[in-house]
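To whoever is covering the structure queue this week,

Two jobs came back overnight. Logging them here so there's a record in the thread.

Job A:
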Amino acid sequence: MEKTQKNINIIGGGLAGSEASYQLLKRGFSVTMFEMRPNKSTGAHKTDGLGELVCSNSLKSLDEATSSGLLKKELEVLDCLLLRIAHECRVEAGGALAVDREQFSKAIERELTKYENFKLVREEVTDIDFEVPTIIATGPLTSKPLAQKLAEMSGDENLFFFDAVAPIVSASSVDMSFAFWGGRYGKGGDDYLNLPMSKEEYLAFYEVLVGAECVKLKDFEGKEVFEGCMPIEVMAKRGEDAMRYGPLKPVGLCDPVTNKRGYAVVQLRKENVAGDALNLVGFQTNLTFGDQKRVFQMIPALHDCEFLRYGVMHRNTYLNSPKILDATFRIKGDAKIYVAGQLSGVEGYVESIMSGLLAGIALCRELTEKPQIVPPKDTICGELSRWVQAENGNFQPMNSNFGLLSPIQMRDKKERKKEYSKRALNAIIEFNNLLNS
């Protein structure tokens, strides 16, 4: 397509904003992206890079028999830039797609700046110019002035939940005499470092963890924790064995030297290609830094570990989207204003990328006076798009999951999931053909 003179404002340089920019740039539009970092940071970001992964470095499963794997397959059909970059920056993580954060971020900026019609402006946006087509993708850490503006537009207070980040430790500081590399049931290669604990060690760890000191957060009462990113101390307080049925599940993890299975097993995942930084899988936390060191060093392999980053907890803002958005992520009304990313009420890295991709396509179609189309039902893309505008009386952010899809009646669970994926991929291919017709 020939370049148009129409300029689009993208507010926010995260996952959704970056993907939306690409979808518009490749269709010939000029894009001005506003990113407030580094002039103004947040409580969770560490860099000024585009598409920074604030929490985990994992984009979840690649298996298309899982909802997260299926969503990736759907986005690949729709030419998703960020997934392509994620594969280029991949680090070993078994069947999951995990990336080197720094390489991933740099690659995103490098790809976008290849377009001469892309402009990156490092400043905070506190108001919205309704005369300029805009995608607001400021994420769950939207600055207060803009969040207030959005609240005024929606006639409702912004909703929120609390999210947590896991610590990262130096690989060289892990005591390997208490650890072994390997995937669950021997699958996925040696992608995870496993730290087994005996029953006595686990129970001692559990007792100290549930009594450890947490950071006092304004507005936090405990009920606003997002289940998909629950702090390890909150999980522990649900019962002595809660962690053993969650991130410390020992099933399928046998020490190849002793051929024994720990009572509980902590897993570490590579943070970067070099492998010198490791993320404590499932150990999102709001403990004070001092207690993180005191408690987590009770894990035998981490008795003298070096923390490269401590875990933190932060408030995530999202809109009451059914009141303000339609299924194309467009704000209801006359202005050409869209909202994408976690601010729109989707939850998760790839889900945020999806919303940016679809918002970018929808805005392009509006500007070129083409009829709007939403991804088909029974695709993850389609059902999440419908979720953000579905009045259900208790709107909450939503991850990809098969429960969004209409049921397929098959007894065999694995075969049923394969059928979900087959049906969805056939539908998304037809949708993509329609987009390009």
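Job B:
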Amino acid sequence: MSVPAWFARSVYRAQEAAMHRPTFAMLAELERTQWLSREGIEAYQAQRLNRLLASALAHSPWHADRLRAASLDDAIGVGRVTLADLARLPTMNKRDARDNVETLVWRGAPGGVFPYTTGGSSGEPLILYFGRTRQASDAAGRMRARRWWGVEPGEREAYLWGAPVELNKTDRIKTLRDRLVNQLVLNAFAMSPERMDDYLDALQAWQPRCLYGYASSVALLAAHAEARQRTLHLPKLRVVCTTGEPLYPHQRDLIARIFGAPVANEFGSRDIGFTAHEAPGGQMLLMSESHIIEVLNEAGQPVAPGQAGEAVITGLASEAQPFIRYRTGDVLRLSSEPVAGGQGLHVIAEVTGRQTDFVIAADGRVMHALAVIYVLRAVPGIAQFKCIQHALDRMEVQIVPDANWNEAARNAVVAGLHVRLGEALQVELRMLDEIPPEASGKHRYVVSHVPLTEALKQAAA
């Protein structure tokens, strides 16, 4: 089932209005502000920063203490905090967000606050709260980025994304809603060869303007099509948008060749939001109206443009639970070059990202690593984890427990992994005081030693 784009857009507008999300008003604002000069963009950032800090001072005691300690409270009161003044505040990290959630969240934020669980590839589960402004900001930012590629709101999109193992009533309602707004969702957590054949057929029939999904999952589907010698005819496809992990050059080439459209990577995370997106021409553009980004070295000092460092981000739409000078753990380089398309947005030269892996069920289903991560991050009592698939029927789960760990949590981990990978899976839980990084210094939180078939290895790399 598909509907005209104007109808899908109207349904989406009605949904956002019913949810009290100012998504389309924000989209209109973003279409205007992107054409400001770089100086105009930074003045706009300073205005939003002062509003965010004023809200944090009034409603977030943890931040309020830090703002007063930095002697910024008086300047906030008259709206005179500058972007440079941010450096007077200490950074915050994921543990700060986890351990101080009740003194961070503004539960009276207009429209209410809504809990989300994240952890992603960082392996440190985090419960955070979004407000309506943050939800609308992310959605509006993505719609603007799609427009850069000629995809208008309401036009057909296909998502290679995580989905429940079994659809309950709520999920079936969501599936109907997806179709009414012209979105087709394909399950990235169940990519057996037979299922991927069905996905290729579905894409051929759906004829999307945009395909969106985890970078490695989209590459896996492209590799499968190549192995099957499938020739796809998708003349309406304008862009393939990838997310969630680094997009390697060979993956980009493979995806573009198989799907016949350019590939654009995005950068962001559940906690800090939709942060940047690749534009035609290859530049990664920051969502500057909603994010202030600093790049710091190991000593916490800013690096020169073009040098790599940790991304420390302030989310300007995060009033419900402010993320101010938040250490993301991502390593990137900023560029001082202007945007080729004429916008005043900031440019990210390169993102060194989070690396995930695939896991494989005994029945041959290939799953994105997030299928396992979602299980672990939903269980209370886990401070950090690492999953190692040694064989189709054996997975080692390393856990650094916190005070909430108990037998029920242990059972939930085992049961959740059995749902994803089958009842025959032997789950070996190891309790550790810490989980060391790889020899490279990077942390990998899902590692599989079970090889993909030779035809699919290219996509996983």
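Note for Job B: The mean pLDDT is 91.

Please reply-all if you pick these up so we don't duplicate work.
Q.
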